[in-house]
Amino acid sequence: MSSKQGGKAKPLKQPKSDKKEYDDVDKAFLQKKKEEEKALKDLKAKAQKGAVGGAGLKKSGKK
């Protein structure tokens, strides 16, 4: 019928996982991935910088 507990039940907390051991292949992959993300971030920043300049709708002087 009716219970005291209303709403959604919270999930139980997961135990913290220990730090993973990475071998050389995994370390190289993670390093490469970080470099790619950094390059992508730089490209996005450059793209936004250039697009802000003069592009946009021009208003006419007519009423």
Automatic annotation (TrEMBL):
Residues 1-25, 41-63 are annotated as: Disordered. It holds the Pfam family TMA7. InterPro entries: TMA7. Coiled coil: none annotated. Residues 15-25 have a biased composition (Basic and acidic residues). This is Translation machinery associated TMA7.
